[in-house]
Amino acid sequence: MFKKILIANRGEIACRVIKTARRMGIATVAVYSDADRDAVHVEMADEAVHIGPAPAAQSYLVADRIIEACKETGAEAVHPGYGFLSERASFCEALEAQGIVFIGPKPKAINAMGDKIESKKFANAAKVSTVPGFLGVIENADHAERIADEIGYPVMIKASAGGGGKGMRIAWTKDEVRDGFDRARSEAKSSFGDDRVFIEKFVVDPRHIEIQVLADGHGNAVYLGERECSIQRRNQKVVEEAPSPFLDEKTRKAMGEQAVALAKAVDYQSAGTVEFIVDKDKNFYFLEMNTRLQVEHPVTELITGVDLVEQMIRVAAGEKLAFGQSDVKLNGWAVESRLYAEDPYRNFLPSIGRLTRYQPPEEGKFEEIVVRNDTGVTEGSEISMFYDPMIAKLCTWAPTRIEAIDAMSEALDEFVVDGIEHNLPFLSALMQHPRWREGRLSTGFIAEEYPDGFAPIAPDADDKAVLASIATAVELLRRDRLDRLSGRLAPHSGALKRDWVVKLGQDYLSATVLEGMISIPMELDLSIEGGKALTVTSDWRPGEPVWRGTVGQHRIAAQLRSLPNGTRIAWKGISVAAQAMLPQTAALERLMPVKLPPDTSKLLLCPMPGLVVSISVAEGQEVKAGETLAVVEAMKMENVLRAERDLTIAKLNAKPGDSLAVDAVIMEFA
Predict the structure, then answer these.
(1) 614-621 CB contacts, 8 Å cutoff, 24+ apart
(2) What are the ATP-grasp domain coordinates in residue numbering (predicted)?
(3) What span, in angstroms and rounded, lies between the C-alpha atoms of 535 and 196?
(4) Nearest to 209 by CA among 226, 189, 188
(5) 10 Å Cβ neighbour count for 624?
(6) Which helix (H) or strand (E) holds 203?
(7) Which pLDDT belongs to residue 203?
(8) Are 113 and 135 a contacting pair, CB within 8 Å?
(9) 508 Cβ partners below 8 Å, 6+ apart?
(10) From CA 407, how far away is CA 403, in angstroms rounded?
(11) What are phi and psi of 608, to 5 degrees?
């Protein structure tokens, strides 16, 4: 077994590999760029080596610097994680030339499966079911249009060397093919250094289901069940689960055996994933093989008990698999939610900045529930524009799917992140969505269910009663605490005031204290809007970001953030400003004028922090609705900003190459 390995990656996956290596008694070496000097993975590793400037192309993607770090520290092997150099055969060969072991598949398998065009040709030859498409070199946009016409719309335009949803576009018409071809090539060039793309038929309402395979260097290979990865946004996975709620045992077995056959055909040695798209009739088609550890591997680990990172290390060290296919048993259900630094209220545009508060839920086993959080950040960490926007992967396991989803819902409500915008509100809302809970999924789920973008869940009457109860309990405790401050008048002391009014958003609800006293822990009986008594219990203390307790029959974990004269409460995808007041104060508050937001209809504002790639218009130019105004790049994704109406360009305030903050003015309209 290796004595020391180097992790050629960063963030949560580097931390994940270090944890397993530490348990196996293997010393670890981290590498880091200028931007990651104070990163968590650097602190966790036994040693750390600086490899260059912040841009990945000058640090994490420079194979020579990784090899130099191995020589400098005496690392015998390299675990590449995912992304960066993980699927680059030339890196694997360079390591082997220096006598350093690559913890992953051999170059032959990477070359055969790592390139999407070549992998489809190989799969066809191996009689694996594939999606109709054109696998040759596409010369230009005109050629792309001709191919799309022959295949039939819709089509998928994909980067050959792509991954993570980058360099990928769906085209429903001829016009969209040309634009999608150009954008896919541009993204592929900037993200992977390879602008080749291919085109295939886009299967309508498909599910994205993948099979985890594990193979050694002695001819043994197994599959470890499947993962349902259909909840995607911009072709990037957001929520995954294992097993799939759609597959039956017959289909699972057929997909698994096909995945293993493909792995054996390329002499695969390591953990790998064979991805399929599955139609409504359970017909499945080979999509690609990822010759690396997948981001979503924890859900497979949770339902099988197999540590995939450990198995990768053991296989790379020459060991045989210690178990066969008959030993693989699927137990319970696991769900993974990817926490991204993206603003769900701005169409999930990237957000960067410092984590002023980062408080994940407690990890461990709690009765029949398991909570796991794979992360590479801590409070005070900086979310950089140079790398992927993923902050953490929150996972829950339970005996059944609904129990796992409910556990995830509660864990998300307990996950506190401040300082940047993030998708926690969306993930919390998703856990309540009927279609998700029923397992009626497709890769178009988010686009279909949120066609106009995401907005917080509107609370129903029961939800309002819970929120009003929390707001009242919080206000009673806050006022009682103020009265106890020395040297201060105590205007709220004396008999407990029974009648209150709670403003939730624009709604006013009456709240009556029926019984109880103000204390920590607290227990009160409240009536909201004259309804039945709700017993409210909690040991919450002012200043704590999460209110935990019960309201009636509900066990609650709600996040609280202070507002002027009130509190913002976030719970199960609901986010509402709450203000508990005495009735006479509420009567006056109703008379206050509403502050209107500023008019920005004549401005194009940068929707996220990013780099201006191009400006497509000039001052004085007349533009039609839908035409491109500018392209802004953030976190390796190009975002096209289009005109929402016919207009004339009055002034350009930015130029290509400018780095802009969110809401910076790019141009003004006449």
Answers:
(1) 614/656, 615/652, 615/654, 615/655, 615/656, 615/666, 615/667, 617/649, 617/652, 617/667, 618/649, 618/652, 619/649, 619/650, 619/651, 619/652, 620/648, 620/649, 621/648, 621/649
(2) 120-317
(3) 63
(4) 226
(5) 9
(6) none
(7) 83
(8) no
(9) 501, 502, 586, 590
(10) 6
(11) -160, 165
Q: C-alpha distances in angstroms, 408 versus 184, 304, 384, 390?
A: 34, 19, 27, 18
Q: Tokens 């005996």, residue?
A: 399
383 vs 362: CA distance, rounded Å: 22
- pLDDT number for residue 666: 97
Compute, in degrees rounded to 10, the torsion defined by CA atoms 348, 353, 354, 358. 0
Q: What is the C-alpha R_g of the chain? A: 27
pLDDT digits (tens, 9 = 90+) for 430-440: 999 999 999 99
**Beta partners for residue 222, in sequence order:** 214
Which residue's structure tokens are 């001819």? 219
Shortest CA distance to 531 belongs to which of 549, 515, 512, 516?
512
Which residue in the list 87, 288, 301, 421 is annotated as catalytic?
288
> pLDDT under 50 in the chain at which residues?
none
The residue written with tokens 């109880």 in the block is: 516
SS3 of 404, please?
helix
In the block, which residue shows the tokens 């929150």? 394
Tens of pLDDT, residue by residue over 358-412, are 999 999 999 999 999 999 999 999 998 889 889 999 999 999 999 999 999 999 9
- E strand or H helix at 455: none
For residue 255, the surrounding DSSP H or E stretch is helix 249-265
* Known active-site residue 288: yes
